[in-house]
Amino acid sequence: MVKEVIGTGDTPELALLDAKNQLGLSETDEVDFEVIQMPEKKVLGLFGGKQAKVKITIKGSPADVAEEFLKNVIAAMGLTELTVNVEKTDTSATFDIEGEEVGFIIGRRGETLDSLQYLTSLVANHVDNSYFKITVNTGNYREKREKTLEILGRKLAYKAVKTGKKTSLEPMNPFERRIIHTSVQKVKGATSWSEGENMSRHVVIGPDPKERRNRGYSGRRGSQRNNPRPAANPDRKPIDESNGAGLYGRID
Questions:
Q1: Largest alpha-carbon pair distance within the chain?
Q2: Which of 55, 198, 232, 243 has the fewest Cβ atoms nearer than 10 Å?
Q3: How much is the pTM?
Q4: C-alpha distances in Å from residue 155, one per residue of 26, 83, 162, 187, 209
């Protein structure tokens, strides 16, 4: 977002002050400006004459641009009762949406919330072409979702070890797939991988072939009767499909 304001006055100094006043800035605020017209006196004090013109150009920060975009989208959705709280740093911004209509913002399994975050990230990262992390949340929804996925991944990992069968999950974004992978990799005897392309990419959880060979696992339920529940294995490294950059990874 680039904002330009043109101020006028009898002198360039007065024109600059007029432009600052239009932007709500004080006289001492430092800004980048350009004198686009010098003052000209009237001929014989009666004809012609021009005032000075000064243009101030302000380039919004990624956080400011993201905030304006997100609020405009929410307004366009007709959700006028929602409020957006912002926490900003030099490299990131977190937007927490509050109100009775947040269900419309979350959507099915958080799909609307994810889409808002993705689009807001696109807008913010095109301001100065450097990576700026954007998080869009409502209450502690993302924290609850992460906990749910951790429990799901662990549960299906134990199931894979017990039954010797694999399970395919619903399509997820890279960040959520990483949560599942992390949870599964902590269960000895289970493994996970991703299949599919683009929006259809999903996690598959199954028994670890290496563990099956080592234990002589036959895949029958009876072979597990005398075996204890598989132990946690925190030393295994999870698959990282998000490149460490949060939801959807870096936005270019």
A1: 110
A2: 198
A3: 0.59
A4: 60, 37, 11, 10, 19
